[in-house]
Structures are given as C-alpha cells and as structure tokens.
Design goal:
two-stranded parallel sheet
Length: 399
C-alpha cells in the first residue's frame, strides 16, 4: 500500500502467512537448541514476540535482524557507568523534528527494515518524541522504545502504545536497589525503573527487560531473570559491557565469567517463560551446537541463526545523523544530513565490508567453522584492536 507522498512506503503491521510460518518455525527452533523440552513457555506469548521480531526469520547477536537503532538524544537523567552514549547536552546537534521525520521516511524505503529501536540517552527527554513516534507508527514500523523507565508514566505508556510502540525495552542492572543504583548512579532510580516496567506491562504490548552483564553485577543475573519473570517480561536481553573499561573502572567479563554467563542463560532458559536473548555474545549459539543440544542439520542452523549483525542486518544512527555499523563500532558509514539513509544502507563501502559470507574476518574468526552462524562480536573486536574485522578475543569456542 503506497502513501500519497512519493518515495514513502507504508508497511503492513501484519506479515503474510508464509512469513509467519517461517518465523514460528525459527523461534521454535531456537527453543530446541537452547535445550527446552516440548513447547517453550515463551512461545505462548508468541504474538508479542513476533510483533517485536517484525518479520525476521533468523536470530542474531542483537536480536532479530533486520533493523536500525536510532539514538534520538544523548541527554539522560541518569549517568550509567557502562553507557556508550556520552550523557551530555546534545540538543544543539540533535536531528530536528523535521529531520527526524525525514529520516523515518528514508528508512521506510528500505524494504527489509520493518523494525526500528528508539533509544538514547533517554528518549523521553525529547519534547517532540510523541510526534516522532506518531510519524513512525503511521509508516508501519514495529517500534521498540528503549527507556530507563524512570520517566515513563502509565499515561505515557498508553499513548506510546497507541502510536505504534510494539515493545517497551527497560533496563534492570541488578535485582537489588543497591546494585542497580550503584551502576546507574542515581538514588531512587531502581524503584523508578520498576514503576516504568509496570506502566509498560499495563499496555499489553511486548515487555522487554534488559540487563548489561559486567563484573559489578554478574552475580545478580539469576535474580534479575527471576524478577523480570515476576514482572511478566516477554523478552529478557542480556547485553555485555563494551568497552572493557570506562573511567578507569574494569567492566568486561573475563573468560571464566563469560562462560558462567552463557551457562546461566542456557540453564535459566529451560525454566523461564520469557525468551532470553544474549547480545554481544554471538558465540552462545555455536556453543549450544558444540554442547549437542539438538540434532537438526547445518543448513537449517544457518537459516535460523544470523550471528553478529553489525553492518549487516543492523546499523546504529547517532543523534547527529552519523550512521555506524554498530553502537560499539564508532566508524562512520555516512551522515543522513548529507546522504539519504537508503543510499547509505545500500551503497556505503564500510557497510559492504561487513556483508557477505566472509566479512573479511581475520585469524581465528576467519578460520572458524561456525563463522556463518557467529562471526564473533565485531564491537568487542574493535574495542580491543581498533579493527572491526579482527578476531574476537573473548570467544570461548575451541577453534
């Protein structure tokens, strides 16, 4: 269905039956390889998960490709120790309302992109955020709204859901206030996040709880998963702290901690009704392959698992219009103020380097038999070597 304005496309929020079948098969497959017996509990919430996945039939290290993340601002009311966005007053450089709408129009032209993540900073600090979300909703995007939750009221949540938000994504970095607030560095923000999560849950759309694993909170992960379950989360995303250090504080998990993380995710998923998704950890899926959690063939694995999506099925749009392959890879593929997004997406030499079977991966990642379903974390490789195609030094697989 075409919009009256040339060059814009209104996408349907409903996928054709054949695509829905492929999605259902794909997510069922993920259940099998994670070691679940029978029907995974989270599949009973399949409609919400399918709305978030927005037509994807494969799973990657950033969730369901293909999608973009738009950092609408770096302004924030918190000051998290692991944040990759500099929490400064970026209002002078932010895309204006008109530029933001133009960007959304351009993203809508890219046929494969049905889902867009709105993040910050804190998106609710933008006075025009509801106007922008209304525009995105009219274009038919499946919108994931990423917020720290502290400013989200029940009325705001209802309005955002009405405008097209299909998923509220809110972080808990500990199951205790002491842990969460020591990381987020603001007194009272733990209760604020819980209140925001409850407000989001009341809308009935998909509820996603995020956790960023680091040395400071790894022991809290089982408790966070249980807390998220009690709050009726549909998806639990487990991110990792990148870069390895910030402000002189060591954040990144070492090899032993990394193994503890993936074992915890795999074991908790057996009993957890929410879908648990590791991010910045594409080796989780081949690790499950190595553990012989399933017996389906290689060709099916390669269709259902997409590995690291940086620059391939995913890109990150900064507050000032710069397009990066990933929020952890600060290399510019272009700026939407100078070049239409669809041209950057389709023609950027940098993004082209990330695509294709080989992706120019080096050393152990380039030689690995699991390259097609993993490829290592490109953001972590860049953080350690300044080369996005270097080997992922944190990978736990036996090459």
């Amino acid at each position: 269905m075409a919009n009256s304005k040339p060059g814009r496309r209104v996408k349907s929020l409903y996928n054709p039956p054949s695509l829905l079948f492929k999605q259902a098969f794909s997510i069922a497959y993920h259940g099998w390889i994670s070691g679940w017996a029978g029907l995974p509990g989270w599949m009973l919430k399949g409609k919400k998960v399918l709305a978030t996945s927005a037509g994807a039939t494969a799973i990657g290290c950033t969730g369901y490709p293909t999608h973009v993340v738009w950092e609408v601002t770096t302004r924030c009311n918190l000051n998290c120790i692991h944040c990759y966005a500099s929490s400064v007053d970026s209002i002078q450089a932010e895309l204006t309302t008109a530029e933001g709408k133009k960007l959304l129009d351009q993203i809508a032209i890219v046929e494969d992109i049905r889902m867009i993540v709105i993040t910050g900073g804190e998106p609710l600090l933008r006075e025009d955020i509801f106007e922008l979300m209304e525009h995105a909703g009219k274009l038919g995007f499946h919108i994931v709204f990423s917020t720290n939750g502290t400013l989200l009221t029940p009325d705001m949540a209802k309005d955002l859901a009405r405008l097209g938000v299909a998923n509220f994504s809110i972080s808990l970095d500990g199951f205790t206030s002491d842990c969460h607030e020591s990381i987020r560095r603001k007194e009272g923000c733990f209760q604020g996040a819980l209140d925001g999560i409850k407000a989001a849950a009341q809308t009935g759309v998909c509820l996603q709880v995020n956790f960023t694993a680091m040395k400071q909170n790894l022991a809290e992960l089982p408790g966070v998963i249980d807390l998220a379950e009690s709050l009726k989360a549909d998806i639990i995303m487990i991110f990792q702290a990148i870069p390895p250090q910030k402000e002189g504080v060591s954040l990144e998990l070492d090899a032993e901690e990394q193994m503890h993380l993936i074992r915890t995710i795999a074991e908790k998923q057996k009993k957890t009704r929410a879908l648990i998704m590791p991010v910045c950890c594409p080796e989780y899926w081949p690790w499950l392959v190595e553990q012989k959690r399933f017996s389906l063939g290689k060709s099916i694995r390669e269709k259902a698992l997409a590995g690291c999506g940086a620059g391939r099925g995913f890109s990150y749009i900064r507050f000032d219009g710069e397009v990066w392959p990933c929020n952890f890879i600060p290399l510019s593929a272009g700026n939407v103020r100078l070049t239409p997004f669809q041209d950057i997406w389709n023609n950027s030499p940098l993004l082209q380097e990330f695509r294709g079977q080989t992706r120019r991966l080096k050393d152990t990642c380039g030689e690995c038999r699991h390259q097609s379903i993993c490829g290592g974390c490109r953001g972590r490789a860049f953080a350690h070597t300044s080369d996005p195609f270097a080997a992922d030094s944190a990978c736990l697989l036996d090459h």
